[in-house]
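---------- Forwarded message ----------

FYI, see the peptidylprolyl isomerase record below. Original note from H. follows.
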Amino acid sequence: MFTCPSIAEKVIRVKIRSSLALAAAVSVLLVGCTSTSNTADVEKGCVTFPTGKQLDSAKIGDNFGKEPKIDIAKGTKVEASQSRVIVEGKGEKVRPNDTAVADISLYNATTGEFAFKAPYNGQGSNSVQINEQLIESISAAVGCHTVGSRVAVLAAPKDLFGAQGNEQLKIGKDDSVLVVADIISNEKAPKARELKGDYKDAPKVEFPGNGEAPKVTLPDTNPPKELTIEVLEKGDGPVIAETDSPKLQTLGLNWNTGATFQKFDSVLDIAANGYVPGFSKAIVGQTKGSKILAILPPADGYGAGGNAQAGIGGKDTIVFVIDIAKD
C-alpha cells in the first residue's frame, strides 16, 4: 500500500529543478513518500524491476534529450512494475545518495495520454537524490543507471501514486504509468569530513560584498553539541518578532560533509517562526540589517530523520550564515 503523509513546511526549502506545474503535481515523487511494494529488487541501494511483455512490446523513442515518441497498447495495466533501458549512456553511474538531474515524463499507459511532459531544454526537470525516501519507480528509472541513459519504467499503481491515483495529473487509481527518465548529469554524494577534537573556534566567515555569497571556512574539529548563535554584524533596524517575515538570504552548509545545501541566491520572506527550530531562534530577537552565524545540532535542525533530499543525515550538524535585509 502506498502512503504519503503531509510534509511540514517548517524547513529551509531545497530547490527542485521543475516548473511550478511539476512541483505542484508530482512533487510527491521527490519528497518523503515511499511505496511499500514487494516487487522491487533492492540490492546495495539500487532499485530494479524486471522486464515484462507489456513494456518489451512498447515502442519508445531513443531520441535522448527530446520528447519521447511512445507507442504502447491503450488500456495497458500491470500489477507488477517493469523496467527497460532504452538508451545506455556512457557517463558515470548514479549511485545511492548521489543527486541526479533528469528529464522525467509521465505517460498514462492506461488512457494513452501524457500526464506530464518534461521541458527537454537541456537543464532537466527534476533533481532527485537516490535514497530510501524516493518512490521506487522513480528510483528504478534513475538510480544505478549511467548519465546519458534513457530508462523506462512501466509502474504499477502501488509503485507510484497508489490507490488514490493523482487527480491533477488525470491518473486513476487503477492506471499504470510509463515513467521515462533521461539522465542528464550527476552529482556525487559528499563524503564525510575527518573531524578531530572538540569544538573550539567558530567557522570563519567573509562577506565579499556586492551581493555575492559569503565565504565560509569550517574548522576540522567536531561541531558544538549545543545550538550556537553569533552576531557577525548588528543591524540598526527594528527587532524581529516571531510573526514577522523579514527578507533574508542564507547560505547553508553541512558541517559533517562540508557540502553546501542552501545556496545564497534567493530571498526568503516567510514568518520568522516558520523555519527549522534553530534557524528561527537565530533570527527572532535580532535587528534587521544583521548578519548571523548559526550552528544547529540535529535537534535544532532536521532532527533524527535528517533531510535526505538536502544530503543531511540524522546526525549531521548544519551551519547557516544569515544576511537579514534592512527593509
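H. also flagged this: Confidence is low (pLDDT under 50) at residues 1-43.
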